[in-house]
Amino acid sequence: MPKHGKKYRAAAENIDADKKYPLEKAVALAKKTATTKFDATMEIHIATSADPRHADQIVRASITLPHGTGKTKRIAAFCEGADAEAAKKAGADLVGGADLIEKILGGEIDFDIAVATPAMMKNLAKAAKILGPKGLMPSPKSGTVTPKIAEAIAEIKKGKMEFRTDKNGIIHSIFGKASFSEKNLVENAAALLKAVVEAKPAGVKGNLIKSVFVTTTMGPSIAVDPQNFS
After folding, report:
1. Cα atoms in the 13 Å half-sphere on the side-chain side of 52
2. Which of 19, 167, 178, 217 has the fewest CB atoms below 10 angstroms from its CB?
């Protein structure tokens, strides 16, 4: 098992591994312990009591963080005609219909998020086995299948993102950059945690959130006291 470098070990010395910190303190520590020379991404990992093996326990929703994510996403828009023109004006990086779908079937995937008009979903279904496992398949629930494609693209540009539980019932997400102010990062993280609680499926009984950890790219994990979240 690889050993951590000197910077990581020095950063980890500032953290009590047996302690759960208030969100504000955890975020402050994460910023302080960022070990990369580049602007590190702030990550949050939320363990839930949901069992994603059951369809009625999948936690999935979308949110526009108050202060954005600090990350630019390449957007693919599956639409045609006037919708395609609107998507281009809204800032989509890739716009197309059958031609774009064929590129995906050929293994060409050069985007981080996809949006589509309802009319395109029948054609896009043939690429579901490729896009689905990568988390790139547009979905009405996440707001990425919509007749108002330009509005959806604009929201994504502002920082709208989707979150969902993985096969272990854990939500992995980002909530900003280490260069953000502590205040903005705390507000982003709090908004995300609130959205997760509000997305609690009917099939989950009791508290949804079991544990929360924040960290930066390549930095040590910091446990957050989940008592203010249920």
Report:
1. 13
2. 167
- Indicate if 59 and 169 belong to the same structural domain: yes
Cα-Cα-Cα-Cα dihedral sign, residues 72, 161, 182, 177: negative
pTM of the model: 0.76
Q: State the total domains in the chain.
A: 2
Percent of the chain whose pLDDT exceeds 90: 68
Instruction: Measure the CA–CA gap between 207 and 223, rounded to whole angstroms.
Output: 18
Report residue 204 as tokens.
């989950």
- Does one domain contain both 150 and 169? no
Collapsing DSSP to helix, strand or coil, 24 comes out as helix
Q: Which residue, 118, 140, 158, sits at the end of a domain?
A: 158
In terms of C-beta density within 10 A (0-12 exposed, 13-18 middle, 19 or more buried), how is residue 49 classed? middle
Classify residue 205 by burial, with Cβ atoms within 10 Å: 0-12, 13-18, 19+.
Answer: exposed
Which residues touch 149 (CB under 8 Å, ≥6 apart)? 77, 79, 83, 86, 87, 90, 115, 116, 117
Residue 1 has pLDDT above 50, yes or no: no
Q: Which of 158, 178, 198 is the last residue of a domain?
A: 158
DSSP string, 205-221: -S-SEEEEEEEETTPPP
